[in-house]
């Protein structure tokens, strides 16, 4: 029997830290081992780096693709035909020429439901290209039931061709176990200029993330909650979205610290050392940061909209992203009510334990073979 040749587009394995990159890397690390009777073709911009070397296991072949999105898409079909691929797993877009069936991951279609948060030109391109890619795909994967409903309703893709496979927090996100862990968390926080207690936000600095509301809610905290606290925002300003310099958001308040890009190895320690995690985003296709915070033993306040209630469940305090006073009250409660804090931590650990990257990879592998079986 011929071994299936499964091509996976890993163009997102670049230096930009975001959920799409995490998803790609976690799958690439697991799929070949879960599926030893298939051959995997990993297409990525850099095939010589340390990360690529770690992916080059027995049933994996690495292939270099152009970094440019247009060049990648225009040449991908020819590459797939040359490499005799039986299936392509892409993200968001598929090549105009496809010599094999495609599984397509659409992490969200928030530009449709929340268009005000996307530049007009980008929104126009997404609205033209995403539906075409989704309708051409043999199977569309997404990461929440919210997104699954949106794709079915907005793009007219039949229900049986859209599957929701949730994401997960990596094993590096865990609570502090002892004084050594706590000391290391403090040392990493100090590396980013943080001393003492802090409220943490993690994510790109873009309008959809609602950072100005978080800053104002933090500044409104009462003396028992906010006297010794810093608000720390870990993430880079996204030039595609940002309309002004993120530094303007702090308005000279020394208690608010924009950390910029945080090294991946430092992020678990920053979570671990936080007093609470606040995530007032207007819209998310999934919401990895709240899940990572819960797995780290940190109480969570986040928005009550889009996919976030699926991720957080009853393990966090959910607030409307338009309710700044409610956000401030929720943070104050966690900071001043020890019983509530302990309950949220326990519930968060239980909730985060319901998600795993192994389960995500197994479901994705099953999706591949479902499509291959239909060919």
TrEMBL record:
GO biological process assignments: lipopolysaccharide biosynthetic process
The organism of origin for this protein: Desulfolutivibrio sulfodismutans
One Pfam family of this chain: Glyco_transf_4
Domain Glycosyl transferase family: start-end pairs: 197-348
One Gene Ontology MF term: glycosyltransferase activity
InterPro entries in the record: Glyco_trans_1 (IPR001296), Glyco_trans_4-like_N (IPR028098)
PANTHER family hit by this protein: GLYCOSYLTRANSFERASE WBBK-RELATED
UniProt entry keywords in alphabetical sequence: Transferase
The Glycosyltransferase subfamily 4-like N-terminal domain, residue ranges: 19-166
Full protein name: Glycosyltransferase family 4 protein
